């Protein structure tokens, strides 16, 4: 069968790949932080331009 190459590795529930998990979580957290920070700055700039602050 051609699909056998997918089953060569150990079952993933043995133990998680903590490096990959950490990288994924870290990247997600960084992106969220960056997006929220940018959004807040944009809102402040918008208020400044429209004389609301």
UniProtKB/TrEMBL annotation:
Membrane topology term: Single-pass membrane protein
Organism the protein comes from: Chinchilla lanigera
- Output the InterPro entries linked to this UniProt entry: NDUFC1
Upper classification of the organism: Eukaryota, Metazoa, Chordata, Craniata, Vertebrata
Q: Where are the transmembrane segments?
A: none
Q: Name a single GO cellular component.
A: mitochondrial inner membrane
How the protein assembles, per its UniProt entry?
A: Complex I is composed of 45 different subunits.
What family, per the record? Belongs to the complex I NDUFC1 subunit family.
Which keywords, in A-to-Z order, does the entry hold? Electron transport, Membrane, Mitochondrion, Mitochondrion inner membrane, Respiratory chain, Transit peptide, Transmembrane, Transmembrane helix, Transport
Localisation: Mitochondrion inner membrane
Q: What is its main location?
A: mitochondrion
**What function does the entry list?**
Accessory subunit of the mitochondrial membrane respiratory chain NADH dehydrogenase (Complex I), that is believed not to be involved in catalysis. Complex I functions in the transfer of electrons from NADH to the respiratory chain. The immediate electron acceptor for the enzyme is believed to be ubiquinone.
Q: Does the keyword Transit peptide apply?
A: yes
Q: What's this protein's name?
A: NADH dehydrogenase [ubiquinone] 1 subunit C1, mitochondrial
């Amino acid at each position: 069968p051609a699909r056998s190459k997918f089953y060569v590795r150990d079952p993933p529930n043995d133990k998680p790949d903590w490096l990959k998990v950490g990288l994924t979580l870290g990247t997600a957290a960084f992106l969220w932080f960056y997006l929220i920070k940018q959004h807040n700055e944009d809102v402040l700039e918008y208020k400044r331009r429209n004389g609301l602050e």
